[in-house]
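pls read this stuff:
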Amino acid sequence: MKRYFKSLILIAVLATIVIYLNLGKRSMSISDEYINFAVQDTAEIDKIEITGLGNGIKLEKQDHRWLLNEKYNVRQKAMRAALTTLLGLQMKSRVMKQKEAEIAEYLKKNAVKVSVFRKGKTLKSFLVGKDVVQLKASIMQLDDAPFPFLVENLGTYGSVRKIFSLSEMYWRDKTVFSYRFDEIAAITVEYPKYNESSFKISKKENAFVLWSLQAQKMIPNADAESIGLYVSYFNNVKYDAITTELDKHQKDSLRAAKPEVIISVEDVFGQKNTIKTYLRPNTNPETKNQYVYDIYKMYGFVNDNQELVLVDYLAFDPLYRHLKDFLIRN
């Protein structure tokens, strides 16, 4: 019996070696230009274009930051995943020979095309089809390659198709405020309905000073420690999501109303970011009778953008401070 099992194991090992050698011979006969999907030096990439299914995404590096379609900042995590994926793409095998023509036709109609550039020169350009989950690979084909391949993502081990998304929302950065302590020149917090609570913190020489917006004067002997801690809160503040729950007329009415809070930050370079937040009606049937307004989220408009965003109280609560919070208590 033991001899029988040993024979089975030997046969399995020999079969594996034969298959490996055959695949190796098959791979060796394929030109490198058809199987090298990876970009070896992702630092040199300055533009990525993703097109297909009637949509298009352009990611372009300008002044050390990535822009989406020439108008929005790109979400860092999404950009990092894209670059890591480009570095880690590796051909796993050819698709089944009997299915090559069928799969190639599928890619022409349904694939997403990814083109990678440096200073106007194309570094890589390929089609990305569906994932083959069982094999942990994606169906892909380089431009001018005669047939498609199964390609592994050794960079992030995620779906290549999802990483190179055609959704603008996937790529957009949700950051409202992102400043180092030494980058902030002034912070203005206005409460249009309660002006006595409005204040401004501005840099004077090497320290921050407190102003009352209602009295239009500087507050002497303010709590420097509380002010410094407050300034540090503006290092990574994001909105929750863009929402389409209000139509254009409703958004215009909201914009015309008085905001609950207006927060503006000006940096040392003279650039300013502003968010206006508004109460959001509570539509939860379980708590509607208890709370008139949503106790978790508010509406917001960032800068002059026409899009309405949802703001999480948890993220913004540290910023909702009042003038009295910075006064030294006797």
User: Anything to note?
Assistant: The longest strand covers residues 121-132.
